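Board notes (copied after class):
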Amino acid sequence: MLTNAPRGTKDILPDRVGDWIYLEERIRDICARYGYLELRTPIFEHTELFRRGIGEGTDVVDKEMYTFLDKGGRSITLRPENTAAAVRAYLQNKLYADSSLVKLFYIGSMFRHDRPQAGRMREFHQFGVEALGEMSPAVDAEVILLAVDFLKSLGLQELKLSLNSVGCPKCRPLYRKALQDFFRDKLEHLCKDCKDRFERNPLRILDCKADADQDFMQEAPKVADSLCDDCRAHFEGVQSCLKSVGVEYELDARLVRGLDYYTKTAFEIKYAPLGAQSAVAGGGRYDGLVEEIGGSETPAVGFAVGMERVLLALEKQGLLPERKASAEVFVIALGEEAKLPAFRLLEELRRAGLVAAMDYAGRSMKAQMKQANKSAARFAVILGEDEIKESVVMLKDMEKGEQQKIAIDDLIKTCIAGVKG
């Protein structure tokens, strides 16, 4: 039906937009304090960017991308995540020329064809950061701290930070072989997707929800046992930085994240009260992605936060700010002669910086007062023929229930004092 939004999408209605603005303001505030600059990338990119960046064999690439041919016959994909797009922008615009460490953040819509559920629609919104150009484990820790600080600044307390290292191209082949050796005689017990992942990407088996409860999954080899000296030292460095600032975390040997570009550090933050969809943030290091997309070897680390899930958590805990009134001053015109003077007064109030509204339908005094109440205005300004002749208005303080006659020339300063003070 034309009157329904496509499945998996939803309108953000006027009474909820304030929640999104609040969240975006908090994002921009904390990113400014950490020195991250905002980046805005196109909603669609060439499909090959995501195939090479995210990786063949991932659910995102194989099942979830919105891909189509444009009128020039080029394969285009609505972005399913923004890290690959951010790296493309970093390379195309030579952002590396200004600094050895480039720190970016983004806010925007992502698209995945998945089963819609609470906190995850087919169009969903992410806030993420990317730090490109520095290998130090301190940068990993900074990125993790930013995510934790952001969530805590919103008032969320029951957060659980999980860490793992997924190795690098030097040591990951050893782990890949260890996993295949372990799962080879268990293939018949794995789901169809995991049987396919066995050859293409056995790490994805650890991330499978369908096979998560299989008894033998707990006995699967741990990546920590296969790490090279460099990966082990890097991971210890990340943990040392986090411990030095008192951040609590737990090690999770099965945490591999859902995208292929991760190397070394991987992390996830869960908010337990959300239940099954408790993961609100996740990320890690992706030292090979810049080179995979066409740049030179460049270390990088980042994360993404699901904004819908964060808003759901804030709503559950009553942590969203009170919604603002739709008007501060409501102008009531009584009679035909009062309409134009009331309209002029409305514009003067707005030019003075006040949020002002009025009824345009010429309804009764009672109906207009009802509308003023509904708008939650602090003041109702009543203007009729008698008031026009005397150059006054009746000003009703809706909060105190008091009403007084004042000169029109004193109206604006009186309203500003009442609303702003």
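Comment from the instructor: The chain has a mean pLDDT of 92. Residues 46 and 203 are 27 Å apart (CA to CA).
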